[in-house]
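Show me any protein, keeping tokens residue-aligned.
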Amino acid sequence: MTHQNLTRILPGLLTAVVALAFAFAIHAAVPALPAMTLAVVLGLLAANLPGTAVWTAGRARPGLDFAGKHLMRGGIVLLGLKVSLSDVLGLGWLALLLIAAVVVASFAGTYGISRLFRLPADTALLIATGFSICGASAIGAMAAVRRISHRDTVLPVALVTLCGTLAIGVLPLLVHPLHLSTEAFGAWTGASVHDVGQVVATAQTAGPAALALAVVVKLTRVILLAPMVALVGAEQRIRHRREAGSAGTPAEGRPPIIPLFVLGFVAMVALRSSGWLAAGWLEAAAGLQDVLLGAALFGLGSAVRIRTLLHTGARAVLAALAAWLLIAVLGLAAALLMVQ
């Protein structure tokens, strides 16, 4: 990176770091509020409050866009260090099949709902990916493989944050009306809540047993990020070749089947599963991942203009709420089958 480019992005990166420090401070004071969700919310506030809107749209914009794109990818790579194959396999084959079925059904259902609400195909794809797998991280990965503009990820990230935050407040209230056991609630949370931080915030309300099961179920969904992105990448590459062939032009600049950062994610899963890394290294990597993803999410949130969202995103919000309900029902059915 040249000195000129560093000078351009530094104000935005420093802004993201300061905002992230506030997010972590609020999370420390109120643990029920995930730091990653707070990062998006602070980004939204920075983009829409009169005192900060000019800064985030002007001098800080290049650095905030850099964070939303490149730091997000670094965070996705380190996310792999949270996934241990031995923990995943410990769930048993029935649970693994049920979780995979929930991911596939929620992906297809969310995509279909989004298209019924007349959302663009790329937006529907990103919403489906984020809702069914692992929130903003999955949206960033899918946007990269489909070469979807960074700015087009802003609305899906806002929606997945909205619905994940809704889950934190709503799901614990349904434990007693639905007569759920601690294990069933943990499995439900892991199978249906979008982001890892949101899963932790929701499941911890029912105690450590629910939290432990919720995290393993959630990370099993996270593992499906790599094959899902690979399938979409393969489809994109085949379509690119066909279009190039029909136009009689060479297939130059074709998208990769799997982006390098997704391969990095898979490598980190393998490294974590090998047991070679000491607990201290895993803890340090988890801290760095939170910093990278938090800065990226602040960058994405700072690109959302509430006035524009209200004018253009009403259908998207309705689609997201319908998809959230669908995933909650699918996740509950799977959880009840898992713990019966």
User: Anything to note?
Assistant: The mean pLDDT is 88.
